[in-house]
Amino acid sequence: MEHSFIDKYSERDSFLHRLDPRTKIISFLGFIVVIVLTPPHNFSIFAQYALIITALIILSYIPLLFILKRVLLVIPFVITIILFIPFFKQGQTVLTLNLYLLKLRITYEGLLISWNVLSKAVYSVILLTLLTSTTRFTVLLKGLEVLKVPKALLILVSFMYRYLFVLIDEAERMQRARNARWFGGYIIRQIKLLGNMIALLFIRSYERSERVYLSMRSRGFDGNIRLMHNLKLNLQDAGFIIIILLLIILVWDE
Amino acid sequence: MSSLITIKDLSFKYPDSDLVLEGINLDIKKGDSVGIIGPNGAGKSTLLLHLNATLIGKTGEITIDGISINRHNLKTIRQKVGMVFQNPDDQLFMATVFDDIAFGLLNVGIEELQIKERITSILAHFGLSGFEGKSPHHLSLGEKKKIALAGILVMNPEILVLDEPTISLDPRARREFIELIHNIPGTKIIAGHDLDMIQKLTQRTVIMNKGKIIAHGPTQEIIQNQQLLFANRLI
Questions:
Q1: A214–B49 C-beta distance less than 8 A
Q2: Is there a single domain that holds both residue A117 and residue A172?
Q3: What is the Cα–Cα distance from B7 to B55, expressed in whole angstroms?
């Protein structure tokens, strides 16, 4: 069975795909930091960021719909913040709502904070989506490794990436086996069954981890993780970083 | 010729079980291909895990190429004995084929340039050129098994240990895999209950049942002894 929803579009060939992962990690994360540090009332700067991001999306050949779907994933978390803040922040009143005994005031300062959270969250997610979907997951990990992210953390993520699909397959097989002998029943029974399946999946993963460890040891694993990479920086990478840097300086210069 | 592997009076039990291995004695000569057959739960896999010191028995002694296995020479032993596990999903734990084959080589401390050369040549030998960047979960079972074998062979072990190598392969993949193993020179120890495979790949065969060695002899003789096979749940 094939799953590839983590880095679905990473096999495409575009300018962004061809860049070294380090270039992308540094410039995208740098860009995110700059965006987060931008004062929220500078609307024109945000508009110009949007232009740069649009240009990046066009360069990446990633379908817009896919990016929007990813943005939707974080919206629920952001919504809970931006819906309540306008009512609680003290300041200049924009609008007053009368709900029987309850009198709610929306303030300008509150709205500004909401805008701040929403715009920065959306921009950041778009950039991260671009980063992860123009880079193969394994290559991304290599890039992070060269950038001195702790190896233990990376190997953990790499194991997750490797075995996530094995686990999903196992869960799907279990579900099919259940459906084949399932003739309806009360919701309580269904939940109990689900609990059993989750526990079984856990035990199987645990046992698998022991077997994996045996096979690691039998190939000389002694607790030190050793990785190798063949990443190369070239002119394109330098060019990309310089252009992003220039654009950001231009935007801020006004 | 002297023995390459000597097992003397080996017994083993897991923390929560009865004896899984009981008084195993076995001599294997250099260049021999030995089959280990037996029903499920006979202790075949447990015995194999002792050969490269993944498990170390409570009693008994295993000598490999004159070196007695103990906790201090694990690295030497594991370089001499390459172990291919039954389920390739347990063995291919790295995110790409290249990283997986490189894993053992890096642990042994081989130079990066040489690692690349070795990986390119072994993949070409297995007919899997260009698989370096692939993720194991995108491969077929036959391909996974070949990569798992490649990851061991690339370390040039003196002894190759295979646990049920042909299990759940389709006929074509099975035949190809048997041929691949057949063409590997050196000492091989192969466990399984695929009698046809054992017959094709080994000269000597050991029958195990309930943790003990029941019979040991030339493969042809053992395979033709229908009574013996039947008594040990092999037909």
A1: yes
A2: no
A3: 14
